[in-house]
Structures are given as C-alpha cells and as structure tokens.
Specification:
The protein is α/β, with parallel strands linked by helices. It is built from 5 helices and 8 strands. The chain has a single domain (6-24, 41-178), classed as Alpha-Beta Barrel (TIM Barrel). 23% of the residues lie in helices and 18% in strands. It comes from Duganella alba.
C-alpha cells in the first residue's frame, strides 16, 4: 500500500485524506475472488468493504471503535446489513463502480433518512464533477473524485445550481412550498392548496 495522501472534497473544501480504501482483488484469469474472511487489514486508517466487515466484525471491532476502520458499501449491497454497527464507524462510503450506476444515490438516501446516519458519507469510485450536486442532495458530504480528474475543478460541481425544485436530504421542502405566490384577486381559489 502506498503512503501517498490523496486529496478529497469534504464539505465544500479540498482537504488531504488520511484514509485508504481497501479493495479486494478482482479475479484474474479464472481465479476465484479473494475471500473476505482471509484478507488481512493492514495497520492504519482503512475503509473496508462491507463484505469484509461482516465476516471479520469481531476481529476489527476494536479498531473501528478507535476510529481506524470505516466501511464502504458496493452498489449491489444493502446498508441495512450494517445498521447495528453504524455508530462504530467514523466514515461510511458508497462505491460507484461506474458513473452511470445510480444505485449509490439510493443507498446514500436510505443511510441518511431510514438508518439515521449523520457522520461522513463519502462517494468513492467513478466519481465525476457532474455527479457532485446530485450526490450532495441525497446526503453525501465527502467525495473522492476519480484520480484522472482535477479535484479543484470538481469542487465547483457542488454549486452548479442555485435552486432545487424537489425535496431531498439537503432540502426537506419542495420549491413550491418554500415560496408562496399570492393568488390573483379575480380567480376563484376554492381548490387552492389541494
């Protein structure tokens, strides 16, 4: 593992990241994938796959409680699997295997609204500037932008739009409820507000 620190967006600023994302090696030439039960997590601050956490919970619990272990959720996994462990993690990440895979948005929304996660929620994987505004709307507050992209340019994606129409995690009230328009005096308003 490399000791090079990466830059991420946290909140609305670019900061140095002291976390490393542990990824299980992909199968090569027909070899079976790495078994999460046999993977050793090195010393340091690591965001581990949910599958690894689930099988090594007892082994990693003390490190998680000490703030050294976070967890990342794959786009085909359910966050409910770790709902009882969420309070242990200083960071929860959601992986976007490719930018066209939108399942991570639902995972983030559910973590915030149904499971009550209030800590750092980080987007990792194929994360691009064009996604950041929408990611922020569903509850992400940290972004690990794809390594071939400029993190400072991506930061601008958080302010691409000045107003939103729909309600979401970041804005609980839709636009039409936030700004009342007076009804014209000559219009019958019997059905207003329905």
């Amino acid at each position: 593992m490399s000791e090079v620190k990466n830059l991420i967006i946290k909140g609305r600023e670019v900061v140095e990241d002291d976390w490393q994302v542990l990824r299980l090696a992909e199968p090569v030439d027909g070899a079976p994938p790495h078994d999460p039960a046999t993977v050793s997590v090195p010393a340091g601050k690591f965001i581990v796959p949910q599958s690894l956490w689930l099988v090594q919970r007892e082994l990693l619990a003390a490190r998680a409680n000490a703030g050294e272990i976070g967890v990342w959720i794959a786009s085909d996994e359910r966050p409910e699997a770790i709902k009882d462990d969420l309070s242990r993690f200083p960071v929860v990440a959601v992986d976007f295997p490719k930018f066209t895979d939108g399942r991570g948005y639902s995972i983030a929304y559910n973590l915030r609204t149904r499971l009550g996660w209030t800590g750092e929620l980080r987007a990792i994987g194929d994360v691009l500037r064009d996604q950041l505004f929408s990611m922020q709307r569903v509850g992400f507050n940290a972004y690990s932008v794809r390594s071939d992209r400029d993190v400072h340019d991506a930061l601008k994606g958080l302010s691409d739009f000045s107003e939103t129409y729909q309600a979401s995690v970041d804005q609980k009230v839709p636009l039409f409820r936030r700004f009342a328009r007076p009804a014209p005096a000559s219009v019958n308003n019997d059905g207003a507000g329905i």
